[in-house]
Structures
1.
Amino acid sequence: MAEQGQDNFRDTIGTLNEEGKRAWVFPKKPDGKWYEYRKYVSYVLLLFLFSAPFIKIGGNQFLMFNVLERRFNIFGYPFWPQDFHLFVIMMIIGVVFVILFTVAFGRLFCGWVCPQTIFMEMVFRRIEYWIDGDRGKQIRLKKMPWTKEKIKKRALKWSIFFLISFLIANVFLAYLIGSDQLIRYITDGPSKHISTLVSLLIFTGVFYFIFAWFREQVCIIACPYGRLQGVLLDNKSIVVAYDHKRGEKEEGRAKFKKNEERATTGKGDCIDCFACVHVCPTGIDIRNGTQLECVNCTACIDACDHMMEAVNLPTGLIRYASEDNIEKKEKFKFTPRLKGYTAVLGILIAVLIGMLFLRNDVEARILRLPGQLYEHKADNMISNVYTFKLVNKTIEDINDVHFKLASHKGTIEVVSGNFFDISGQGLAEGTLFIEINASAIKSDKEQLEVEVYSGDELIETTVTSFLGPRTYR
Ligand code: SF4
Ligand code: SF4
């Protein structure tokens, strides 16, 4: 562990030993006010995470990310491949929001909301405490030979971990392919959907690997958001921080002696008990300052508050605070940097709302058949052949659909019949011919406007090109 005033802790990470091998972290079970709050938040989030793919709004799954078919539902609002630009704007808004939040409140997201932390600390770790016991017992168990007791505990823990990983993989799949499809696959039986079962087992393996073995390494090594902290945080960001002014004072931290009046000794309030270190799930010492590994889980706040209460000192030696708050007693300020991010966020949200209002329920695309020229027919009629595709983005059927040529006098003939229906969330595609009298064509490549009707209601307008002979130019 680093000595006071030395920066050698930056040369290594807490989860690697001197030989560069993994140093397994055995965090002490957190206990305290913040841990209780986090438990409640995690119950709500877990409930949301497990139920969101099974909630429907207007027949649409509340959240779905079907990357294979490029169909996404966000808060029950369906997005099709044609709406990809909207999806991208939503993603950018999400990123800007997280940046803004991080600049102001550090890694609050990591400690309180991130599924990795929620599952690791509030599900898997708690099962581990239940089976293996707290830190001391876990260390002893790890060192123990493979006795009957150890085999029993390990088998029980790993089986439960596997079952939960399998459950998470199922829910993950419900987000990917849709809960209706998942339920259909389950009721059909796995033998009829072997490839899905294989994917499910691969996901299960990945989750098991992460939560049983890889653990805090996700936050320390793999997570790109974690790596961004160095860029996003500044002296005004509120993070879980050790009040080094109070903790060290003139004479630095020192062990607590019985009946000592610490305030009169010149020693800092930190009693060097290492409670904050032992409780840390990423194996760091918060007294070394803000570190990339800290996921702001608040466990060290609770641990330190317990120690402060035990030695009759004020709590809050480790607390949510900015560097400026600790150094200069400055309160939270809405800095120009925050104002800038807020303005960008506001503009993006306004653009998204505008685009959502302009979005049609039906998307129509009419394209000339590649490689085909025009055909000169009887009565001086010019004919072009097209393929069309109509996407119904709603969950309602659209009936009596037909086309009208809006920009020119002419006819549209759909090969399969001029009137047709499109089922909810379905699409209609086929071939059609457009015929226009040569006298109405002014160039060899004319722009046409085509209207799509459902009964008498205009539901979409689209444009396409029409080829004619050069002599009409
Ligand atoms: S330093 Fe504190 S807040 Fe940060 S990860 Fe460790 S215990 Fe959690
Ligand atoms: S828990 Fe508090 S008193 Fe104990 S070592 Fe950490 S900062 Fe110091």
2.
Amino acid sequence: MRMRIGLPIAALLIMACARGAFAHGEAADEPFLKDLTVAFYDVHVSPTSVKVGDPVTITGTLKILETWPYTLDPPTTAYITPVVPGPVFALRDRTVNGEPAFGSIFVEKGGTYQYKMVMLARNPGRWHVHPGIAIQGTGTLLGPGEWVSVEPSTTPFRYDVTLLNGETVDLEH
Ligand SMILES: [Cu+2]
């Protein structure tokens, strides 16, 4: 009799305590990827609470480890990128080792890359933000993540770009 009551109570307690999934995806990477490919360190994401249209900056350093597995293609071409759940931020500016990096860069085993990425908050919500490096032939490897809250703004999102002829266009439209 005690068992009959105990089980439903336990089930209710578990349901009451269960919350939404809260994990960051990089925990799902295989250990050999996390330990042998790329080390991310000094990762900072700030600020972690903004309004739509405000900048969020990701800085940090990554090293492509000498232990890079021989079972993967050697790293040559890569793309350092914010990893966010969909187009909820828009990348505005990116430098790698102090140089502007508009697209892919050349990389090598043992190389160290200091990155800075500025992105604009585009959609309201609570988003997880990681630095990542997409390596040709391997895929995207993730660094540590941070939660960023984006509040709605009274002005709609804009992404203004000045063209060579001096004209300004809003890429959002
Ligand atoms: Cu995450």
